[in-house]
Design goal:
The protein has two helices and five strands. With about 140 residues, it is an alpha+beta fold. The protein has a five-stranded mixed β-sheet with strand order 1-2-3-4-5, sandwiched between helices.
Length: about 140
């Protein structure tokens, strides 16, 4: 009999303080997008246990661009900052959820992209890093 080792990564539940910080970062990202001409179509679009923080749309003539936005909030840029936290696993989860959203809400002429917004909540200021087209949709998911 062949036994295989299975690794499970069990993460502790987020503390209330981290959840609050994450929500604050998402509100900052919403305002950033609104100021730059985007409309928020969805907040926390859920697909099973996965979610997309923000789904934003921008009209461009008769078509629209849909951005699936992952927001990462930190208190500092240590350890690579918030944007570097969107690894291949998170990209795969976002891609899967985005495909569900597209199957439900896609309109003719829509174009899609994945953005990452890093929010650093400092003691005296807020810094935002918006990476447009941060990664491409994964073909196998």
């Amino acid at each position: 009999m062949l036994l295989q080792s299975i690794k499970l990564l069990v993460l502790p539940p987020m503390s209330a303080a981290r959840q609050t910080m994450g929500l604050r970062g998402e509100r900052v990202a919403e305002k950033w997008l609104s100021v730059h001409g985007w409309e928020i179509a969805e907040r926390r679009f859920r697909n099973g246990h996965r979610d997309i923080d923000l789904v934003a749309t921008k009209r461009e003539g008769v078509s629209r661009t849909v951005a699936f936005v992952e927001v990462k909030t930190r208190t500092s840029a240590d350890f690579g900052g918030p944007v570097s936290a969107v690894n291949w696993r998170k990209q795969r989860e976002l891609t899967r959820s985005a495909k569900v959203w597209m199957s439900r809400f896609q309109k003719p002429g829509d174009t899609f992209r994945f953005d990452v917004i890093g929010v650093i909540l400092g003691a005296e200021n807020v810094r935002i890093q918006h990476v447009e087209n941060a990664f491409l949709i994964q073909s196998k998911s």
